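Subject: Amidohydrolase family protein

B.,
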Amino acid sequence: MDDLVIRGGTVADGTGTPPRTADVAITAGRITAVGDNLPRGRRELGADGLLVSPGWVDVHTHYDGHALWDPLLSPSSGHGVTTVVTGNCGVGIAPLRPADRDWTVALMEGVEDIPGDVLRRGLPWNWETFGQYLDAVDGIDRAVDVATQVPHSAVRVFVMGERGIDHEAAPTPEEIGRMGEVVVDALTAGALGFSTSRSANHKASDGRLTPTLTAGEPELLGIAAAVGRLGTGVFEAVFDDADIAAEFTLLRRICRTSGRPMSVTTLQRPGQNPSSYREILRELERANADGLTMRGQVAPRPVGLLISLGGRVNPLLPSATYRALRPGDGADLPTLLRNTETRRRILAELDDAGTDVIARFPHAYALQDPPRWSDGPGPAITRLAADQGVSRLAAAYDVLASGRMVYVPVANYVDEDLAAVREMLVHPFTVPGLGDGGAHTTMIADFDFPTFQLAYWGRDVAEPDRLAPEWIVKRQCADTAALVGLHDRGILAPGMKADVNLIDLPRLNATAPRITADLPGGGSRLVNDATGYVATVVAGEVTFENGRHTGALPGALVRGARRPEERA
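Prediction pasted inline below.
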């Protein structure tokens, strides 16, 4: 008798084949059978009318710190994610010498918007090497699997010290060799890969640029050669679009030298060349035609900045009247803001100071709850201002005073539609990613990308843009897992890891984000809730039922790439 049988669901098994009605049997954390009329199990889950898929594999998160204080890795676990990959964009918290802790906190605070005080209070800081960090992560029971990458910035500073930060001195050949050794040690200890950033947008909270921005070809190729000799691991890179051809020349050399797969951030960015993403897609095509394994990580909707009363971007903060407001006695902050005289004074003070954050964003919207996207993220602030005969700032004020947030797409929405997103999403050399779970705690809430992708592209969008659910499942499960070398999951087949979602597709959605103060030391972050996930199974145990955690913590640290027959 199997431990668990999921009975009579519409199975999208992760291979991309059309869904079929079938049972899924599970024992000892592995799938034992997928077929018709399987024998009864010790426990059964009825799945009639539900979509049964593998658990989502989220390859782009920044839960490096959260993995040590949040056993649920929420909110991702509530969105059907069963495996997360941390250490992206070349930043992270290991390896680390005690003397470099303050700098590391400043870098994570600046690049990923994780409050420094949260990191200082929430982490035990009981490691130096990457292997010791993995041991710390491994010591915590959790609801999802955690896989890691070793970040270039940490490696560089670990080897070079302050010289690795100041961008004035190139590493010596001996230091490059040492960096390769540190990366190989991390991969041997269990990291899936190595990540780097070549973006000038990545700055520490003290204003200094990320250490890896000026890393030269000898350094990167030296690390690549060391990884190539080991014969395992993947590369992940983020870069600016100023000279895509030059960047790909270097990235191709890294890929060829290492002989290992690579993925790169791929977005439609506003500015002088909003079509630059097509150049990235063409470069990916050329690289793969030449025998290199390179993929673009793409976002299934715009990357959006959230303007709110509790977030880091709050257009009312320059007003002394606003700062003096003290909610209490049953009156919350939005209620106070709706007072006519308070509104007049705050807007007048902002006008007198010439401080209008909203003016920086020509495209801004009043976020709906839930955000549906069939007609955009919500009413445009420009339209609301015109309808009410007020300024855009006043219209945004009224949205905030109603308790909602203002949504500003910062990528993937240049033409105020999702045509570019779809173009990137369906490209044969891309995978979904870039959700940044754990990062941008009060500014961005894209951790629900897997839910959005299936709900919008698989159900809500009008034909002919709709994508088959089985295709979406393959992309978010098998393809993402394969990208990082986790070939033991992402497909519902005998011998594979038993990570499963039972989804009521008509009800699948995500609520509008809200801010909650549940980080270490009372730090705030954005979270939201998912609907439509009837159950999520990790390693054969039901972790969530109808949005509620069951108490089960079967997740594990994933140490290294895995073949289908390997078990944690």
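The two ends are 23 Å apart (CA to CA).

T.
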